[in-house]
Each structure stands twice: as C-alpha cells, then as structure tokens.
C-alpha cells in the first residue's frame, strides 16, 4: 500500500477510536452545538422586532464565534491531547517500529480533523438555519471566505496542537490545553460581542489565531454594517489571511522541530 492509501486507512481507524472516546466527542464535537442551542434559546427574547426584521437574532450573533471555537476544539485541542496520550502510552513508539510510513500517521490525524470539523460545521449551520432561522450567506464570495478561513484555522490548529503536545504528559495535558483554550475563547469574541471586550484584551486576543478565525466567520455571517464594530472598523480579510497563514506556517515548522515519537526520557 502506498502512503496515501495507508493514510486513508489510518483516517478510518482514527475516526473509530475518536468515536469511542465519549468525553472527546462531547467536549470537542458536540459542545459548540449545544452552546448554540443554549445561547439561542436563552438570549432569543432579547432581540427586538427591528433586529429580527434586519435579520439579526441570537443564533446569528453566536454562530460565528462558536464555529471558530469548534475549529479550535476539533483541531488544536483534539491533537494536543490525543498525540500526548499516544506518545505516553507507547502507541507512537510501536507505530514507529512498523512498516507504516510516518506520513501515513500524520495523514490520519489530518483526516480525523477534517472529517470531524466539517461534520461539526454542517451540524452548526443546520441547527442555526432550521431551528433558529439564521440567515445564511447567499453570495459565493462569503462562502469562499468561509472555506479559506475554515481551512487555515483547521490546518493551523492541527499542526499547533501536535507541537503543543510536547509540553505536557498524559496526566497533565488536560489542564495544559483546556485552561488557555478557555481563556482565548472568552477574549476572542466567542461568548461575548468582541466590541464589548476591553481594548487591552482585544489586543492580547489579536496575537492568537482564534480571534482572526472568529472575525473571519463574522464577516461571513454578519451584516456588512457590523464591520464598523471591529477593532479596525473593517473585516480585514487580507490581514486575517496573513495572520492565519503565518500561524499555520509557524505551527508546521514548530511541529516538525519538536515532534517526537518517544516519551520524554525514553528512546
């Protein structure tokens, strides 16, 4: 079998293993969907008739941020935690000693992230559209923006998660990953309107990719007039692409530099 075929087989295996990890499925896959349902239900009554006439409701308000959070959870958090566990329990060491080429292992991880991320995105869009009457984009340009922001965010999150896995052990990785990920969600416009976050925290969030994924998604689903509420009073698609691209390239280089098949202290 060539590397691509083995990568496909590895992807199927990764999906089977992922589906058996109930905690991972809930917190990484279902959590953003459940939050969209909860927030849309709780805050739905706070929107006036004028807001609804303009196409703005609770579902539309929270959808971009939760898509961005879903990208981070299914790529960065999933990779950081799963690779750490596989390294510490000896799975990677055993795989390294098999005829399977290393690229097939990484293709399997990429396939896992793509499959779960796309499935989660589709679920979020279906829930938003049919349960909460969220207006979806009608022009190709916005869908194209959704595609490249989604791809850059998922790719960057995957390689950064693999690189980040070297910072912890199987026992500590949960806290090492979840704590900073949760903080970033709060300051990047996932749970609150970004304009309501203190300006110094906005500047901190702008260093990291999650803020730019969320901003890119807002440019897809929000009315054009709301661009004035961003930090630069514009959607900044060019800067979004540059920042996410740099994080993706930097994460890839860092991943190549730091990745190890063996648990620390062993060979």
Automatic annotation (TrEMBL):
Q: Does the keyword Cytoplasm apply?
A: no
Residues annotated as transmembrane: 25-49, 61-83, 103-131, 143-167, 173-194, 241-262
The record's subcellular locations are: Cell membrane; Membrane
* Membrane recorded as keyword: yes
- List the record's Gene Ontology CC terms alphabetically: ATP-binding cassette (ABC) transporter complex
Example GO BP: response to antibiotic
Topological type in the membrane: Multi-pass membrane protein
Q: Which InterPro entries match?
A: ABC2_TM, ABC2_TM_bact-type, ABC_2_transport, Nod_factor_ABC_transporter
Keywords attached to this Swiss-Prot or TrEMBL record, sorted alphabetically, are: Antibiotic resistance, Cell membrane, Membrane, Transmembrane, Transmembrane helix, Transport
Report the residue ranges that make up the ABC transmembrane type-2 domain in this protein.
23-265
PROSITE patterns in the cross-refs: ABC_TM2
By sequence similarity, the record places it as follows: Belongs to the ABC-2 integral membrane protein family.
Question: What is the designated name of this protein?
Answer: Transport permease protein
The organism's lineage is:
Bacteria, Bacillati, Actinomycetota, Actinomycetes, Micrococcales
């Amino acid at each position: 079998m060539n590397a691509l075929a083995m990568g496909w087989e590895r992807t199927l295996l990764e999906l089977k293993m992922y589906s058996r990890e109930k905690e991972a499925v809930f917190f990484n896959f279902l959590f953003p969907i459940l939050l969209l349902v909860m927030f849309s239900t709780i805050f739905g009554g706070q929107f006036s008739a004028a807001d609804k006439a303009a196409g703005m409701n609770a579902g539309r308000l929270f959808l971009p941020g939760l898509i961005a959070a879903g990208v981070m959870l299914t790529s960065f958090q999933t990779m950081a935690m799963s690779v750490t566990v596989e390294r510490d329990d000896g799975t990677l060491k055993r795989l390294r000693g098999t005829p399977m080429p290393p690229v097939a292992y990484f293709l399997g991880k990429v396939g896992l992230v793509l499959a779960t991320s796309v499935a989660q995105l589709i679920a979020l869009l279906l829930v938003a559209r049919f349960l909460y009457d969220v207006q979806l984009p009608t022009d190709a340009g916005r869908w194209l923006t959704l595609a490249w922001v989604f791809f850059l965010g998922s790719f960057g999150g995957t390689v950064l998660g693999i690189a980040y896995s070297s910072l912890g052990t199987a026992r500590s990785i949960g806290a090492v990953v979840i704590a900073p990920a949760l903080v970033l969600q709060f300051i990047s416009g996932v749970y609150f309107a970004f304009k309501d976050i203190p300006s110094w925290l906005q500047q901190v969030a702008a260093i990291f990719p999650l803020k730019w994924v969320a901003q890119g998604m807002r440019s897809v689903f929000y009315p054009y007039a709301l661009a004035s509420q961003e930090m630069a009073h514009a959607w900044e698609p060019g800067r979004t692409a540059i920042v996410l691209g740099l994080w993706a390239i930097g994460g890839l280089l860092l991943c190549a530099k730091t990745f190890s098949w063996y648990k620390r202290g062993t060979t």
